[in-house]
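Structure tokens please, single chain.
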Amino acid sequence: MVKATQDRTHLWNMAEGCRLCPRECMADRIHGEKGYCGMPMDLTVARAALHFWEEPCISGEGGSGTVFFSGCALRCVFCQNHEIASGAAGKRIGRERLAEIFLELQEKGAENINLVTAGHFLPWIVPALEAAKAQGLTLPVVYNTGGYEKPEALRLLDGLVDIWLPDYKYRDSALAKRYSNCADYPGRAGGAIAEMVRQAGAPVFDGRGMMKRGVIVRHLVLPGCVRDSKDVLDYLYDTWKERIWVSILSQYTPLGSAGDYPELGRKVTGLEYGEVVDYACFLGMKQVYIQEGDCAGESFIPAFDATGV
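Here you go.
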């Protein structure tokens, strides 16, 4: 109990003059100022429902109990969830309600609790998870993130999160600067994944093939960026080998502010995606998820209408 209290105090200290993410924007979010993430400290959720479009070992047959939080510290120009990343949608709730939502998703048959873009609300999420677990939450908890995280903050989730689902978007800092305004992304995301692997250990699956513990790193192939995608795979495989799974995504769709970037104004071609998948095979990567068929489209984006909140 002493450690939990100390962890909460540290989180709130990080939020006052906000230093929860690598932006360290120093916004006084506790007193209503919005951070780079677009949010004050008021806990805001855009959707809480069963979600069937994650990797098979996450969604399973029951669906992933996914909670979409409003705001984002990355704000990528091509974000498919730009409506909530900008903070334009969502409902304000308290941590008690958040704990109730976790338990309600469990009652609906969710395979896990999936926290999407939660880092800027960690001072609320940590006690909500603790409360839900004390009240009977037994599902694995998934931390679903763009990868731009501080290991210092992630360490406060040790023992609360079972499955880590980060992106590794770029190896090229110039691309990271152009599309996500963070030239330091490659190193920051690498440091975050290292902490996730430390906490999770080796991947663990049950008899149904559902992940119970581990790390899956997602990489979205961008149009015209095959070379960088190969560099990402080189880095992930050289660094972590079989300690992680990798999910190579083909679902890029020109959304958000992508129209302001001519090179992003199209979908990824089959040849581009195939070249990246072939490179994963060339490297000898075996723990890989790939997408088949036409996965690019707005039909895979849920309605951020406060369902389940």
